[in-house]
Design a protein that fits this description.
This protein is mainly beta and about 180 residues long. The protein contains two helices and eight strands.
């Protein structure tokens, strides 16, 4: 993972500007917070809460505008395919910005996980990506991820700690 977005062919590419009506793409917008440390080694999280304590070392964004319960039924169903690849693109703007431009973010990183038949994606408060295979939680958006909060670019984390806007783009690929 790095500040450069890399497509499956290995070429650098910017994240798409929006979901474009794709049922297998969800975009969640949130904001950073002064207590973002992104030190958790096995998860990352976005929450609708407008606060964060220093103990929340997996949380990378607060005031999320959507939760898993808001995701389309088609997206949730695709995430329940154990062979599905779920890619989380984390795009971060400038700390003084109102929103992150998905076509030209200041920082971008990627975490890739997989789906699981036990995912419910029904939480109405937060979402969690996990490096483990833990699914007994309505917040879990994917499992067996190749990274967590601690693996994110430190420049990206610093921007989040300074209050930068963040957009989480989730893409599900069931063609594997």
């Amino acid at each position: 993972m790095s500040d450069a977005e890399v497509d499956p062919d290995g070429d650098e590419a910017a994240p798409d500007t929006d979901a474009g009506g794709d049922d297998l793409v969800e975009i969640v917008r949130a904001t950073g917070h002064e207590h973002v440390t992104a030190e958790h080694a096995s998860t990352f999280e976005l929450t609708t809460d407008d606060w964060l304590t220093p103990a929340g070392d997996c949380i990378i964004g607060v005031e999320a505008d959507r939760t898993p319960r808001d995701f389309s039924a088609a997206f949730r169903e695709a995430c329940r395919d154990a062979a599905a690849t779920i890619t989380a693109t984390i795009a971060v703007g400038e700390p003084d910005g109102e929103a992150v431009d998905l076509a030209d973010p200041a920082h971008v990183d990627r975490i890739v996980g997989r789906g699981d038949p036990a995912l419910t994606l029904l939480d109405d408060r937060s979402m969690v990506g996990r490096t483990s295979d833990y699914t007994d939680d309505e917040r879990t958006i994917f499992v067996d991820a190749d990274g967590a909060a601690a693996d994110l670019s430190r420049d990206l984390v610093d921007a989040l700690a300074a209050g930068a806007p963040v957009a989480l783009r989730l893409d599900v690929d069931t063609t594997a």
